[in-house]
Amino acid sequence: MDFIPFAPVSIRFTLAYARCSYRDQSPFWAKLRIGTMSKRIAFQGELGAYSHEACVAARPDHPVLPCRTFDDVIDAVRSGAADLAMLPVENSTYGRVADIHSLLPNSGFYIIEEHFVRVRISLMARPGVALEDIEKVRAHMVLLPQARGFLAQRGITAETAVDSAGAAAELARNGDQHCGVLASDLAAEIYGLEVLARDIEDHGHNTTRFLLMSPDLDLTRRGAHGMITTFVFEVRNIPAALYKAMGGFATNGVNMTKLESYMKNGSFTATQFLADIEGHPEDAPVKRALDELGYFTSELEILGVYPADPRRS
User: Fold this and answer.
1) What does DSSP assign to residue 301?
2) Can you point out the beta strands (E) in 119-242?
3) Which of 294, 274, 277, 295 is nearest to 286 (CA)?
4) Active-site residue 208, yes or no?
5) What is the pLDDT of residue 119?
6) Are 213 and 111 spatial neighbours (Cβ–Cβ below 8 Å)?
7) Which of 109, 210, 231, 273 is catalytic?
8) In Å, what is the CA distance from 260 to each residue of 123, 274, 302?
9) Whether the domain at 17-118+206-214 and the domain at 122-197 fall into the same CATH topology
């Protein structure tokens, strides 16, 4: 590998609150600041969403804070309305979640855990309604195609809703006897609906990966299944920079489980990469690989060092 006489860029572990600010003037956030809110986890969606399930699995003793958008989740933690953020990043069937990868580096937060949530789809309706009475179901546009086979077999029409858990809440209010909702069992429990059919998804492997984010970086070694390090970087504008940057991981035997690119600031020439590797930055092979990566990057930032979820493998 050719050596380029350039000092490696430093890996930043410092908090980055100065990069962004929450929306102070919003009445929504003003209301959230009222009262004592300790140990809350913010998530996008309504109560009963799969993100809510991830929060319960990660911290069953923590109250949750549902938010309208991913930006609102980030803002909730910045404002102190919540302590942690639960964000979905990718799904085994539909790939990565839009916009999340651009939000992560700019949030000022760090990944402290990952959680894999199996997407189990249940068809629910108001109490007393039979499956034969259901003429249509409502759910988020991503969820509906995942149960296409079940719905087609029974001649049930699919209708898009903004949010699956929100559709469950609406059904509980409007009393429609011929409408069902596709959502989680948690949503049925919260809104008093009856589950008519469980696990109706076409693919039994459908899983969403969530990241638990905190304002504080945790570098402690923990967990029984090894550590994962996530970082973002931008390669220098030199020939074969990405190829050379990746060489250090291969020569040091560091397994890279993910490498994704996305445009930076809307530019077609500035590309940022997000990577997951197995190991801790203090492991000798990882340290050597990151040091070598620094020679070929103009920007390198650690987003988190956290235990691997046992369901990763």
Assistant:
1) E
2) 122-125, 136-140, 157-161, 179-183, 194-197, 207-214, 227-235
3) 277
4) yes
5) 92
6) yes
7) 210
8) 35, 5, 15
9) yes
Q: Which of 208, 229, 230, 297 is catalytic?
A: 208
Query: Locate tokens 């409007």: which residue?
Result: 174
Q: How many residues does the chain have?
A: 313
**CB of 139 closer than 8 Å to CB of 181:** yes
Do residues 181 and 45 touch, judged by C-beta distance below 8 A?
A: no
How many whole angstroms separate alpha carbon 134 and alpha carbon 306?
Answer: 44
CATH number assigned to the domain with residue range 227-312, chosen from the 4 options 3.60.21.10, 3.40.640.10, 3.40.50.300, 3.30.70.260? 3.30.70.260
Structure tokens at 291: 């040091």
Right CATH number for 122-197 from 3.80.10.10, 3.40.1480.10, 3.40.50.300, 3.40.190.10? 3.40.190.10
CA 276/CA 141 separation, integer angstroms: 29
Return the pLDDT at 268.
Answer: 63
**10-residue block means of pLDDT along the chain (313 residues)?**
35 30 33 49 96 95 95 95 96 81 87 96 97 97 93 97 95 94 97 97 90 96 95 88 91 95 70 93 97 91 96 84
- What token pair was written down for 142? 């991503």
H helix or E strand, kind and range, residue 105: helix 100-107
Q: State residue 19's pLDDT score.
A: 27
- The yes-or-no answer on residue 3 being catalytic is no
Spatial separation of the C-alpha atoms in residues 47 and 45, rounded to whole Å: 7
Residues 6+ apart with CB under 8 A from 132: none
Q: What is the spatial distance between Cα 186 and Cα 179, in angstroms, rounded to a whole number?
A: 19
Alpha-carbon 164 to chain mean position: 17
Residue ranges of alpha helices (H) inside 158-217 are 164-174, 185-191
